[in-house]
Amino acid sequence: MGESAITDVAVAGARWMAGARRRKMTKVIDGRPLGRRERKKAERRAAIISVARQAFQISGFDGVSMEAIADAADISSATLYNYFPSKSEILYSVLLEDFSHLSDKITYILNARDVPLKSQLVQMIELYFYWFDEYDRILIRQVASDAIRSPQINGKSYHQIEKFMIMNLLDLLNRMVDCNSIREDIDIENSARLLFNIGNSEFYAFISDESISVEQTMDRIGSQIDLVITGIT
Known about the structure:
The protein is mostly helical. The protein contains eleven helices and two strands. The chain has a two-stranded antiparallel ribbon. The longest helix has 28 residues, at about 150-180.
């Protein structure tokens, strides 16, 4: 479906979605009320992300232009560039917002009691991969390739996603230390990075080949997790 589909099919729905998101926008940030100008900027940014999400899902990254996103958000192209310098930055923002919705599920895993470390690690990593699988591997590939091609421009945003995942793993390992499930002399931060790197190496294979299932990926990851657990428990 080409760019015309965005204007013919997606614009009306995207505008409605953006309006719904604006109506739901919080009026406070960091415990203080948002000023009118701040609220307007936050609402507009949310509207851009909302219409871009729908546009990417309909036509893919390459099938959507900045002009089409601006049109769907009912703003000028110049205004759009004031908020996002590139289409890749918009995609990163869409991805980060959607990724943050996993927080409640991750918190549930982290708060589980009397669950073996491996089971919690597998559940957490599996959650990420099912999300990657359901989201859109093509868009995920776009994010990863942009970060590699333009590390100075797109790498910072990409690393926010990596940092989010590493911090989750670090939190889990620290809880395991508190429960005496992990040796106290273990370097927790490097252990979390090692576990992340295991998942990250499989991540690139996963997004590159549509035939690879989450189950196949987790089988490989599970074997590698066993080696790490043996070294830290």
